[in-house]
Amino acid sequence: MTKKSARPAARTTVAVQGARVHNLKNITLEIPRDKLIVVTGLSGSGKSSLAFDTIYAEGQRRYMESLSSYAKRFVQQVAKPDVDFVFGLSPVISIEQKTTGSNPRSTVGTMTDISSYLNLLFATIGEAHCPRTGEPTPSRTSSQILESILSLPRGTEIELRAPVFKLYGEHFGAGTVPLQVEGDSPQPEPKYRVGYAHPEVRAGSPTYPLDVIAGLSPDGKLLRIGVVNATFQPQRLALATSGFALRGGGIRWLVTGKTLDAQNKVGAPAGVTISTGKVTAAARGLIVPATSTVIYELPVAASH
Fold first, then answer.
1. What is the mean pLDDT of the chain?
2. Which of 126, 187, 243, 255 gives a 20 to 30 Å CA spacing to 108?
């Protein structure tokens, strides 16, 4: 019966012995791992020689040695620093003190692309949890969600907090034709902020005080209009189409709340209401409710 040898403990320091790079005089030291270490000293005392030209250079050299001969042809070779040995090194990165860009929000993660890999890591193997209850919230398919709902006892109340409009799915289809939106509304006063009597709309908005987009369905039979009303009073949206006419009634999807930052919270009365109903494109236009986002789907008269 053989006894397995004990696994050596992981190093807790980075050991440097006999560093003689530039003005370093046979320096030997140990630096704690997994901590923030600051190297200070007078100008010319060897701070950069130790941090960059010795520790970083040795880490990079070891990484280069792990590459294939083919890969080494495309990277700059790193000379071995004048040091007896360096133990406890991990893969290293080096960021110079000078500013690399004008973005004040740049971090070590963004400048080295580490943040992108971290995002990918958390998105693929991370386990999401509810911020209120702490319970795991695994990703589920539509079939799994339906199966979970059907397994609940009869009479259980279910509240949908994140409804999906079919107009964002296959109902629209590919090939929607965007339309140019024009208008003759008075221009906004720039002193007003979002949520007051006037919303914040870029100068030159023809649909002030509303934000409007529109498009025709791929077959040209439906006109779809998206409207955002950020004011605290209903607004009228006048319709004057060019090149086609509207006929009959259509459908309206409405999302509205009492305030611009209204939201639905677990265990509290709904702050945002969502509804679907019929609407008619009257000659005087459509009435857009206060603090709302509305999508209209109106039939287009057949051309002769």
1. 78
2. 126
